[in-house]
Amino acid sequence: MSERFDVIIVGGGIFGCSVAWSLARRGVGRVLVLERAEVGSQSTSRAASVLTCVAGHPAKSAIFQETWDVMPVIEEELGEPLGVHEVGSLHVARSEVNKSSLDAQVALAAEVGEVVEEWSPERARERVRWLDVGEGDRSLFLPRAGYVDSYLFATAYARAARARGVELRTGVEVHELCFEEGRVTGVMSSAGELRADWVVNCAGPWAGVLSAQVGCHLPMAPVRSQYWITEEREEFDPEQPVIFLPDVPAYTRGEVGGLLFGLRGGASPARDPRALPADLGALEFSEDPEGWETLSAAGEGFSSFCPLLETVGLAHYVSGPSTYTPDGDFILGACEGVDGYLVATGCCGSGIAASGGVGRALSELILDGESGLDLARFSPDRFGDIDAFSQEWLDRCAATRAAKSVC
Ligand SMILES: Cc1cc2nc3c(=O)[nH]c(=O)nc-3n(C[C@H](O)[C@H](O)[C@H](O)COP(=O)(O)OP(=O)(O)OC[C@H]3O[C@@H](n4cnc5c(N)ncnc54)[C@H](O)[C@@H]3O)c2cc1C
To answer: N or C: lower Cβ tally within 10 Å for the chain?
Structure first.
């Protein structure tokens, strides 16, 4: 007899752990998380872990806001701090186009009830010593933003879930989704067949491979994200705001005594998920090793905001795949014609920030049949019939990341 669960979650990254905790919090009986590596060890542990709460549109912002709401709850359940740096975010625009586009950020913040402040160039320069804000630049500050250690955050969800009775099995690989008469009934794994009323696919960059087995091509592709961390300098303050520079485009935050900065645009190679190694530590982006192409294309623009970059050394380079969709929206919910099966992926480079809302949304879909969060824009089926492994599709998803200018 195979073991039976109420819910099996495939993947113990931050999405899987957050869904598990949210289900357990609502009192779901037997929840099992299957992770072939270690909890939080793949995309999650590579994140720059910037947390925003106003981005895109109200439905997306609500997902981010939920994360800010659940973080104190987890801290209370575990009786320990998550180490969130609530330093705010500063958005500095130079071109007329980008200055005007900050109006949309102001309007969205007002719509979703978040505070936003217009800062003078002097105030921005005083707050961030290394930042060269010109008299003509426009700066917006949003207090509810910051960063966290993503690995600690994911393992905190996992520990809080476990304390509520969730079972986590690591070193177990899911080979196949069991599919009978239009319904996913469980998984075939390296630990044998396991059955469940619901299977939730939280397999991150690999989620599309499993999903294609039941005829549901997920509208995303794993696309490289990357950032650098400079050597330590006394000008870099770990409590500086997270800074977004849409003209470059770049984002930065403090990291220990150095500056972490991510550059967008330029080369954003996408991968066929079937060709990804099971351990991202073995993944190489041979098209542009260590992101030199991006660095040389965007480095000059970034130096105009951060002249120190001309003289400071780079200490670390981090890259990994984030799952990008062509419209920049997540993939959350059911696939048409497949019962007992839900998907949570398509993070578009912001899965740490979205984790609280993703957990809530998926647990509500399972328990209530619908979510109090507006998920209409996140349907896995929204692009219709696609071949998510074709080169054309991979290029489309890569282009979304290359064009991403804000959070
Ligand atoms: C360089 C970089 C910078 C980033 N910066 C940020 C940021 O600043 N802010 C932010 O919010 N997000 C950021 N992200 C994105 C963030 O890392 C992701 O959104 C998030 O980690 C997605 O979590 P996940 O659980 O979907 O995926 P993962 O963490 O990859 O978890 C999926 C898990 O599923 C497991 N798995 C897969 N297939 C199977 C199988 N068949 N059987 C069993 N287990 C399986 C994997 O081993 C893995 O552990 C960044 C990402 C990168 C790469």
So the answer is: N
**Any atom of ligand 1 within 6 Å of the Cβ of 48:** yes
CA of 306 to the centre of ligand 1 (A): 30
Is the CB of 184 within 6 Å of ligand 1?
A: no
Residue 266 has pLDDT above 70, yes or no: no
> In terms of Cα–Cα distance, which of 166, 140, 157, 155 is closest to 66?
157
Does the C-beta of 349 come closer than 6 Å to ligand 1? yes
Nearest-atom index, ligand 1, CA of 175: 41
Out of 1-15, 45-59, 393-407, pick the least confident: 393-407
> What's the pLDDT band for 284 if we cut at 50, 70, 90?
confident
- Ligand 1 pocket test, candidate residues 14, 34, 43, 280, most atoms within 8 A of CB: 43
Domains and CATH numbers, the chain: 3-79+149-221+326-403 (3.50.50.60), 89-143+222-321 (3.30.9.10)
Model confidence band, residue 224 (pLDDT cutoffs 50, 70, 90): very high
Per-residue pLDDT tens digits for 352-391: 999 999 999 999 999 999 999 999 999 999 999 999 999 9
Ligand 1 center to 6 CA (angstroms):
24
pLDDT tens by residue, 231-260:
999 999 989 999 999 999 999 999 989 999
Partners of 263 in the beta sheet? 250
Q: Is the CB of 331 under 6 A from ligand 1?
A: no
